[in-house]
Design a protein that fits this description.
This protein is α/β, with parallel strands linked by helices. The protein has one domain (about 70-280): Vaccinia Virus protein VP39 (Rossmann fold, 3-Layer(aba) Sandwich), CATH 3.40.50.150. Helix content is about 45%, strand content about 15%. Helix 3 crosses helix 4 and helix 5 (about 60-80) crosses helix 12. The longest helix has 21 residues, at about 60-80. The radius of gyration is 18 Å and the shape is globular. The two termini are about 35 Å apart. Bound molecules: S-adenosylmethionine (SAM). The site of S-adenosylmethionine has 22 residues, from helix 1.
């Protein structure tokens, strides 16, 4: 993660939510809010069927995968809010716009937690956009340097009330020790009835084998966001269990395509990213 530059992977993922794919784009206004040449280019790509299809194909169906992942995590938000969570903490929020997009958050306070450089850019984009959430709290935190628990306390998060923790597209950039340390903080601030929804990368070989894996590793490393945090399903389940969270579902893009629509075969390259949803049961220390 660069110290002063906004995250490039956050922008890529956000762009995927602005382009028509198997599902309608959830953030079609991103291009206008980004502005500049990048925003204009995104608008051109998103507004023509042919260019949108070209972007989906050239991106090896990343757009399709991200749209389905977003839908899977939106469903987890619905579930947790329905179960009583009124605090939502978005960790490594990037350009996630759920607080501006989901009416289901109308009674919720949402903490936007991200690296200062990325968060400053997001605040610029959204300064004139009213949130759908009851309240948005901006907490600029560098996970590598700052004390997350202390920052949440300073920003008014209440550990006595159930929280939904959303951790989408971030764990793969953190070594296992850093994931464990973050989960320990979440555990300490999770009242019974809290939920955690995250995506994670499994180390299974991609189609194309070691070569594809090596290429992906090189690409992400070259933009300063190396993929250092892959965990198997068993490892993730164990890590969550030792952090006081019980996994209620663990799914990948074929499952999401079955629920929300889309072509599971197209997204085969990204099947190594999964979504785990877990809850903090009552009576478990
Ligand atoms: C791939 S983006 C995902 C963004 C968002 N969750 C989404 O799905 O659209 C990864 C995010 O992790 C954040 N991140 C990476 N390293 C970080 C660090 N050391 N401290 C705080 N945030 C970090 C980046 O700023 C970026 O927003």
């Amino acid at each position: 993660m660069h110290d002063t530059k906004p995250s490039l992977t956050a922008l890529l993922v956000a762009a995927a939510r602005a382009i028509p794919g198997p599902l309608p784009p959830v953030d079609p206004q991103l291009g206008a809010q980004l502005g500049g040449k990048v925003g204009a280019a995104l608008d051109i790509v998103a507004s023509h069927k042919a260019t949108a299809l070209l972007a989906r194909t050239a991106g090896l169906a990343l757009v399709d995968h991200i749209q389905l992942r977003t839908a899977a995590l939106d469903a987890a938000v619905e579930q947790a809010v329905h179960a009583g969570c009124r605090q939502v903490v978005v960790l490594g929020a990037g350009y996630d716009r759920r607080a501006w997009r989901l009416a289901t958050l109308r009674e919720c306070a949402v903490w936007e937690v991200d690296h200062p450089a990325t968060q400053a850019e997001k605040r610029r984009q959204l300064q004139d956009v009213p949130a759908k959430a009851d309240r948005v709290v901006w907490a600029a935190v560098d996970f590598a340097r700052d004390d997350l628990g202390a920052q949440l306390a300073v920003h008014g998060h209440d550990p006595g009330q159930p929280t939904l923790w959303l951790w989408e597209g971030v764990t793969m950039y953190l070594p296992e020790a850093a994931q464990r340390a973050t989960l320990a903080v979440l555990h300490g601030r999770s009242a019974p009835g809290s939920w955690l929804a995250l995506s994670y990368l499994t180390p299974q070989l991609l189609p194309g084998g070691k070569l594809a894996k090596a290429v992906a590793a090189r690409v992400f490393a070259s933009i300063g966001e190396p993929l250092v945090g892959a965990l198997s399903r068993t490892q993730m389940r164990g890590l969550l269990a030792t952090s006081g969270f019980e996994v209620t579902s663990d799914s990948a893009n074929p499952d999401w395509a079955g629920h929300f629509g889309g072509n599971a075969a197209a997204t085969v390259l990204f099947r190594c990213e999964r979504v785990a949803v877990a809850r903090r049961p009552a009576g478990v220390p």
